[in-house]
Amino acid sequence: MNISGVLIHASPDKSEIASNMLSQIDGVEVHANSGGKLIVTIEDESSNALADRVMQFQDMPNILSVAVVYHHDENNIDEVIDPATIPTCGCNESDPLEPTL
Questions:
Q1: Is residue 90 part of a domain?
Q2: Parallel, antiparallel, or unpaired for β 2-10 and 37-44?
Q3: Distance from C-alpha of 17 to C-alpha of 72, rounded to nearest angstrom
Q4: Could you give the C-alpha distances from 91 to 83, 84, 96, in angstroms and in order?
Q5: pTM of the model
Q6: Residue 88 resides in a domain
Q7: Domain that holds residue 2
Q8: How many domains does the chain have?
């Protein structure tokens, strides 16, 4: 299951129409609508659904912008990251007070 949070800006005078259109899409829920700013969640089984939905939203009338602000893929919940495989950035590896040559 993929769960995504999306912030959508709609024309303020048409935001209720946009909200109603979004609510009719399977897996899409509008949680807030204030002054043309809509907070929306998308739930879907497919990992490609988020990109498809964002493109669908951008093509809808009265939608000005779409921004993904959160994404969670429950299919990878058991994936363990070995800290030894994370490359170091080099920061904090030397004493900042120690002069360098």
A1: no
A2: antiparallel
A3: 28
A4: 16, 16, 10
A5: 0.71
A6: no
A7: 1-6+13-30+48-67
A8: 1
Query: CB of 4 within 8 A of CB of 51?
Result: no
The pairing of strands 28-34 and 37-44 is antiparallel
Q: Is residue 18 a part of any domain in this protein?
A: yes
DSSP string for residues in 17-83:
HHHHHHHTSTTEEEEEEETTEEEEEEEES-TTHHHHHHHHHHTSTTEEEEEEEEEEEGGGTT----G
> Rounded mean pLDDT of 5-30?
96
- Structure confidence by residue, pLDDT tens digits, 41-96: 999 887 678 889 999 999 999 999 999 998 888 776 555 556 666 566 555 555 55
CA-to-CA dists, residue 69 to 3, 53, 58, angstroms: 11, 14, 15
**Domain assignment present for 76:** no
Average pLDDT, integer, range 1-19: 94
